[in-house]
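go over this record:
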Amino acid sequence: MNLNHAINCDFCKRQTLDAQILETLMSCEKDLVEVARGIVKGASDPFSGVIKFLQDRPDGASLHGYLVHRVLMETFGSVDEIPGLIRAIASHVREVIRQSNVISIVNEHPTTERWGSYIIKQKERMRFEVGMEKDSLVLKNIVGLVGMEHGVEAPLEKITVKPPKLIVTLNMGILHPQKVLDLK
């Protein structure tokens, strides 16, 4: 009688179905994290790998922040091991949206990250265009990231990746000074 009841009970069927759906979703998430981790690890440097991971999705597709966080943790091992600029761009993400070559990031909250002697301030919403210039990855038309050193703040205008260095161009009105920083 109990076996017959379990077969015909809608609650029991729903519980079994829910468990199967959860198992399928967890398997898909694990596969996605492994593929993303491979993208980050397979790049010439960690920063380019993270940008490639954020960009290599269908146009207009949204990526949830918890998945970005899982990929960073699986790739680098701990928050302290994530390079400063990557933490500034991707560690407090609520959602990432890609439209063509522009990546928009909605963060849980504004934050500040140290990158060597440099401090990067991230706003709740940021956006940048991903491109190539002279065989180097470039983030340009950056909105929502501010660099600070020695008490002077300036919006980041462009980041050029030239491993093992990054060249950060600041927007200070008519001046566009550059700062060369280590990738890590």
